[in-house]
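Course assignment 3, question 2. Fill in each field.
Student: A.L.
Task: Predict the tertiary structure for the chain below.
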Amino acid sequence: MKRLNIGTVIVIAVAAALIGAVFGQPGSGRAAGSGPASTAGPTISGTAQEGQQLSTTNGTWNNSPTSYTYAWSRCDASGNSCTAIGSATAATYSAVTADVAHTLRVTVTAKNSDGSGTATSAPSAVVSSTTAPTPTAAPGITGTPAVGSTLTANKGTWSGNPTSVAVAWIRCDANGDGCAAIAGASGDTYSVTQADAGHTLRLSVTATNASGSTTFVSKQTAAVPGGTANGCPAGTGAIKASDLAMPARLQIAKASIAPKLVTLSTHTVQLSILVTACNGRPVEGALVFAVPIPFNQFGGNEKMTGADGTITLTQSRLRGFPARGRHQHLLAEFVRARKQGDPILGGISTRRTVAFQVHLP
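Answer field:
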């Protein structure tokens, strides 16, 4: 499939910037001028239980913040429908009765002389009541964080006679921020992999009894040695998205469409996207999303790139096509690539606007 000339539609980049605002979510930085911008959101640790104290990290920022402020919010059990807790403006927060059966988030505002930016944490575990298990000795991680070594979960000790205690291993950035659960890592031990190089690890421990469950998130380990200054793994050839770290960035290297010419009789289009990083190496496991500009022309979706760094997205025609009646000459698409677990517009993610020819006789 022929790659079309993207340079002819640079003007559409303005629309892409507006799209970026639409797709923002907690954890993505907002900055004024040269003010701080978030590269990894803050992380909540501690015990999610009434009467227990939770704490937040600041997150990771560029543009050298000089101060931070905090605002905690009470959300539903899924982390949505959040309401600010008026008096909760410190880096720590003690859960109260009103928080039981809810989750908590914290928004950190970073400031410097040029402006400010904000980033919001992922939701905490659901806050439990005082009759649920309570940690009397904090869980943690033992062992040396190095590629190839084995770490052991210390589940701590708990009151309330828990009937089960489950663990989950979490990978964070070098500062303990921007954390995401490691798929399949739920055993009492964890073997450190190359994907952990340059990252820290945390442990989430959940104890359950008849009254409910309580979750404790440990402090982070030291950073696993082996990360590179540019965030790229050593070697040549394809890269797994999970092995990339800041300041490396994904790139949308190629984009093509089938059929080559979109017409009034076109009901389905297929976008073929190539994602690369680190001087053109294909990236496996990058999540790619595409949607037309303006909306409602063809349906947008998100899929993961294969071992060759490519993905084909199939979009079905919607009522909004053609967008300008018989005067539309281009189908513009906003394309985003990101690493799973990163903020949608943060981390190593990238965005690009591409366009393809439309023929409407």
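Instructor remarks: Helices lie at 13-22. Residues 1-33 have pLDDT under 50 and may be disordered.
Grade: pending
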